[in-house]
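ok new one. same drill as before - structure tokens go in, u give me an amino acid for every spot. 124 of them this time. try not to just spam alanines like last time pls lmao
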């Protein structure tokens, strides 16, 4: 049991290290990730300053973090495509375009949440 716990703790630590390494690599190469992170920081600050309910704040924060996760997955897709298909190919275009669409949809979801939350503040 003790050995199993130690192995699980090591595995979890490894996951944390790899994730932090991935974040730093994407941060260094992807301007879009840096821009979304700034937008997210402003969004979270606004959500904390405005008189929102805990549920509304949770929605804004969660969708903002999901947007960063979508951007990281898009970066992962772009990186693999660039490695496997440096020459132009319709399948490479499809993979990259789908990654972009995923980021765009998540951004629309976060924007829509803000519109409804602000609308709720306005009519109150
Ligand atoms: N190898 C390829 N084969 C075919 N089309 C490609 C290829 N690489 C890129 N494209 C097309 O160009 C678009 C932009 O690709 P690119 O790699 O420049 O992404 P990007 O503009 O850097 O994206 P982001 O701003 O999210 O980092 C893709 O969505 C795709 O339509």
């Amino acid at each position: 049991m003790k050995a199993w716990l130690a192995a699980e703790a090591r595995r979890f630590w490894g996951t944390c290290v790899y994730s932090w390494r991935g974040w730093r690599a994407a941060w260094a190469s992807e301007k879009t990730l840096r821009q979304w992170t700034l937008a997210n920081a402003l969004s979270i600050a606004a959500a904390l300053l405005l008189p929102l309910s805990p549920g509304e704040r949770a929605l804004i924060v969660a969708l903002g973090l999901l947007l960063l996760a979508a951007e990281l997955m898009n970066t992962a897709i772009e990186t693999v495509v660039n490695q496997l298909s440096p020459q132009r190919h319709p399948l490479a275009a499809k993979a990259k375009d789908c990654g972009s669409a995923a980021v765009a949809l998540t951004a629309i979801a976060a924007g829509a949440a803000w519109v409804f939350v602000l609308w709720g503040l306005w009519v109150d």
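The two ends are 56 Å apart (CA to CA). and btw The domain at 31-123 is CATH 1.10.287.3610 (Helix Hairpins).
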